[in-house]
Automatic annotation (TrEMBL), chain A:
CDD domains referenced in this protein's UniProt entry, alphabetically: CESA_like
E.C. no: 2.4.-.-
Gene Ontology molecular function: glycosyltransferase activity
Family per similarity comment: Belongs to the glycosyltransferase 2 family.
Keyword Glycosyltransferase: yes
Keywords, ordered alphabetically: Glycosyltransferase, Membrane, Transferase, Transmembrane, Transmembrane helix
Transmembrane segment boundaries: 12-35, 309-336, 342-360, 381-401, 421-443, 455-476
Source taxon at top rank: Bacteria
UniProt-recorded name of the protein: Glycosyltransferase
Keyword Transferase among UniProt keywords: yes
Source organism per UniProt: Reyranella aquatilis
First-tier enzyme category under EC: transferase
Automatic annotation (TrEMBL), chain B:
Transmembrane segments: 23-44
Lineage, opening ranks: Bacteria, Pseudomonadati, Pseudomonadota, Alphaproteobacteria, Hyphomicrobiales
Keywords assigned: Membrane, Transmembrane, Transmembrane helix
Listed name of the protein: Uncharacterized protein
Organism (species): Reyranella aquatilis
Amino acid sequence: MSSIEPTDLLAAFFLVAMLLGMVPTVASLVQYVIIGWQSVRNNYSKCADYTPRVAFVLPAWNEADVIGSSIDSLMSLHYPEGHWRIYVVDDASTDDTPAVMREKMAQYPGSVFHLRREVGGQGKAHTLNHGLSIILSEDWAEAVMIMDADVLFEPVTLRRMTRHLADPSVGGVTAYVKEGSFPGNLVTRFVAFEYITAQAAARRAQNVLGVLACMAGGAQLHSRENLIAIGGQIDTSSLAEDTFTTFKTQLAGRRVVFDGNAIVWAEEPDSLAALWKQRIRWARGNLQLTSAFRNLWFRRSQHPKLGGVTFGVLWFSVALLPVFMILGSIGIIGLYYLRPPWAWSAFTALWSATLVVYLFETLFSLMIDPETGKRAWLEGLLFPGLVSIIIMLMILVPPSANPLFNGPYWSGDVGWSWRDIPVQVMLAWPGISTFFAWLVFRADRAGAPHWLRNLLLIVIGYGPVMCAISFGAMAAQYKNADLRWDKTVKSGKARIRK
Amino acid sequence: MSVDKESEYDRLMRADRKAEGRLIWSELISLVFVAGLVAAYMLFFPA
C-alpha cells in the first residue's frame, strides 16, 4: 500500500480551499432556485384588509434638500384618512431642516410632527430611539414605520405592508427599496441591479425559508406589540441597527416578511467613494452582529430558522465573501504548482459552473424586476466585470485553439517562467480582483475623471468592489477602528419611477 | 386621501398574487434558456 506523501496532504488542502471558494456561488444559486416557491409559498394567504394607525419615524440630520418631498410623498398615501402620522426626529440639524419642518407642519396640521433634539450627533439609532420613546409613550400608534428621511413611498406601499400585520405572528414587514436617482449614472445603475439580487431575489428566497436576514432600514414596519417586545428601542451598539432589530424580532418569536411588491424609492450613492463609506458601515455592522449572536449560528436549539444550517451558510457566504474568494484563489494556484492536471480540471469546472450560474441569475433577475432591468440590464451583464466575463468566455474556446490553455504550463513539464503570469492572474482572479477593485475605489476617491472610473469599474466589475468593501470592513473591525456614523449625503435626486 | 378600501385592497391582492405567481414561470424560462445554451454548446463542441 502506497503511503500518503506530504504533498498529497497539501494538494488535498488546496483542493478543499478551491471548493470553499465556490461557497458564495453555490449559496447564491440555492437562493435563486428556491425563489420560485414564493409563487405558492407566500404570506398573502394570511393577509387581510388591515389598516392600523401608523406612526412614521424619520430620523433627520441636515435633510432640508429631501425631507419636504419625503413628507409630500407620505401625505399622498392611499390609506384611511387620519390613520397615519409623520414624526421627523431632527438630530440637531444645522441646515434649513427646522424651517422646512415648520412649513410642512403648517401644511399638514395634526399629521406632521417635528421632534427636535438640541444635542445630536450620536447616530441614527439614538435619533430613532428619541422618536420611538415619545411615540410608544402615547396610545395612538398601532404600528410604527421606521424609515430614512429621503425615502419616497409609492401611494399604495403602506397598504401593501400593513396587510401582513393582520397576522399576529408577523412582527415586522419590509419593503423593496429601489434605487431611484434621476437621471442616475453607472454607479447608481449598478446599485439598482444589485438591489434586485440582494432584495427582490434574496429576500423572497428568505421568505420561503421563513427567516429574514435584514428588514431594510429605509422601510421597516413593526407592530406596536413587536416593538415593545424587543424593548421599545433600537440597538445603539452597532452600525447595523436594522439587522439587529430584524434578528431580535425573530428571536422574540415573531416572523418578519419581505413584500417585493411594496416599493419605496431611495437615492443611493453615485460615486464609489460614497458607496464605499456606506457599505463599509453596513458590512462592519454585519460583522458586529455576527459576533454579538455568536451563540446562534448553526444551533437550531437557539432558533429553528436563524440557527439553521441553510441560513448560516447564506449569512456567512456574504459576511465572509472575501475569505472565500481568496481561499479559492489560493487553492487553485496551489494546485497549479502541485498538481497541474488537477488545476486544469478544477479551473474549467469552477468557471464553467460560474458561467452557468451567472447567466441564470442575471436573466432571472432581469425578469424579477423588469422596470429596473430595462435601465440597468447592461450593468447586470457587466456585474462580474469584463475580466471575469472574458475568462468565462475563454472556457468556451476549445483548448487547442487557446494559447493560454494550450501551453506546457498545465502539464507540469516545465518550471516557472514569465509566460505563466497571464495564466496565474486568470487563475487567481477571484481573489486578486478584490485588490484591483480597491484600486478603482482609491482612484475615484483621489478624483479620477468619471470616464476613467467608469472604465475601470466595467473592467474590474461591481461584484469585486462589493468583495473589496467586505474585506475593508474586516480590516477595520480587526483594527478596532472608530465606530463613526458616516451619514450618506442625500441631495433629493430620487424620483418614483412609474 | 380617502379611498374605497374594499376595492383597492382586492385590486392590490389580485395584482400581487399574480406578480408572485409569475416568479415560478420566470425561473423556469431562465433555467430552460440556460440549459438550452449549455446543450447547444455541447452539441457543437462535444468533449
